[in-house]
Amino acid sequence: MRWACRFFVFPNCFSLSFVLLMCKLRFTFLFLCLWLSLTMIAQRNRIFVPNIASLQVVAGNNWLSMPVIDLADNVAVNIAFDDLTHEYRRYAYKIEHCNADWTTSTELFVSDYIDGFNADNVIERVQQSINTNVLYTHYHLQLPNDQCRIKMSGNYRVTIYDANDNDKAVAECCFMVVDQGMGIKLDLSGNTDKGINSRWQQLDMEVRFAPGMVVTDVQRQIRTVVMQNGRWDNAVVNAKPQFVMGDGLRWAHNAQLIFEGGNEYRKFELLDVRHANMGVEKIKWDGKAYHAYLWPDEPRTSYVFDEDANGAFYIRNSDNSENNTTSEYVYVHFNLRSPRVEGDVFVNGVWTNDQLSAPYKMQYDDTQGCYRLTCLLKQGYYSYQYVWQQPNGNTANLPSEGSFYQTENRYQALVYYRKMGDRADRLVGFAEIRR
């Protein structure tokens, strides 16, 4: 309102109607910003009930990369999760096609993107855990399957619901199907407009249209998303290209495509509850449950290379046999030695569904000068990072974690296209680069 009141000081220059128009435009802009933030959140995998755990969405067997499959390839999306009981639940699923912003493609018919049924399909692959302290039932779904096959590229949301409990949604899963119609070239450099070989990484991108692809209005027909390590919280959506050519687009030293390099992800392994593995200081049994205490994470003031999985995780145990049903659930204790910062600190990775939410929010221990978190995790390999959510809602790297141009990161680019007259966005390009 202070901004609007300045116009009232000069009544000869600005009319009341003009002021009202400016206020309306301002509030409209704020609403659009809020709407964009909400729709970008909607693409993440989400768990709605506390008894669902270890949600995984993997393209084929490639657990290190984003869940993107090619429409022309014979690769399936594997969705798996545990229900922390031995009680059978009749879980079913619904599939929806989504536009580039992850809003549902309401103008499509189901038959436009699915051959078969998109809803009321029951998950049939069900197995109970074997000889585990924490009882659970493992559910596995593969797409496409005999009930439904995907016909159209784009974003897809799978809602899993309890068919015996008024179709109550228990989880949402997201994956992408690409029909590679554009060539994408990515290049990464530490030479950025914010600094040379310091804490930043610059991504350059070039997109070439497929033969016969008509693009007459770039802003309306092309949508782009650029991500670092598959994260959506700092994804760059629709960065404006510097060069618009007849057969493509190019982003060169684009200010919007500069990312903090951050630091290598931390990691640990829980393979055996009888002794500690990589990154674990000790394992204890308290009479009711297993507890794994990770080695305290110290501040990192300089860059040291360490091979990691950029937030990915893999369920397994020391026998590496029947991992999905014989792996134990363990309470994992995180400990980060760091000065207290304004805002909140979260443990983050693919296994947290990149959600900066309550289960992964750390609490500060003033007496020990560290952040702590305890959460229940299934045995396996985990990579993770600490994310600082500042009071203004923005995310950043913790000062104690450091940020370096040498850090190994994966960058992904998604390109969507809507042909004139089409009723939904199609994913026509996907590329990934690893520094």
Put the structure in a nutshell.
With about 425 residues, the chain is mainly β. It is built from 5 helices and 33 strands.
3D architecture notes:
The protein has helices at residues 2-8, 16-41, 110-113, 218-221, 323-326; strands spanning 46-47, 52-59, 68-70, 77-83, 91-98, 114-116, 121-122, 125-128, 137-143, 148-150, 154-162, 168-178, 183-189, 191-192, 195-196, 200-208, 222-228, 236-237, 243-245, 248-251, 258-260, 266-270, 280-285, 290-294, 313-315, 329-337, 344-348, 363-365, 370-378, 380-389, 395-397, 410-417, 426-434. With 435 residues, it is mostly beta strands. The protein has three domains: 46-178, Sandwich (Immunoglobulin-like); 183-261 and 409-434, Immunoglobulin-like; 266-397, Immunoglobulin-like, CATH 2.60.40. The strands form eight sheets. Strands 1, 3, 5, 7, 11 and 12 form a six-stranded mixed sheet that branches. Strand 32 (410-417) and strand 33 form a beta hairpin. It starts with a helix and ends with a strand. Mean pLDDT is 90; it is low at 1-42.
Keywords:
mainly beta; five-stranded antiparallel sheet; 10% helix; Immunoglobulin-like; 5 helices; six-stranded mixed sheet; Ig-like_fold; disordered N terminus; globular; 42% strand; 3 domains; 435 residues
Kindly state the number of beta strands.
33
CATH topology of the largest domain: Immunoglobulin-like
Poorly predicted regions: 1-42
Give average pLDDT, whole number. 90
Radius of gyration over C-alpha positions, nearest whole angstrom:
24 Å
Helix vs. strand class:
mainly beta
State the assembly state of the protein chains: single chain
| Large-scale geometry | globular
CATH uppermost class of the largest domain: Mainly Beta
End-to-end separation in angstroms reads: 47 Å
Q: Number of helical runs?
A: 5
Query: What number of structural domains do the residues give?
Result: 3
Give the amount of beta strand, in percent: 35-45%
Domain Type 9 secretion system plug protein N-terminal: 52-178
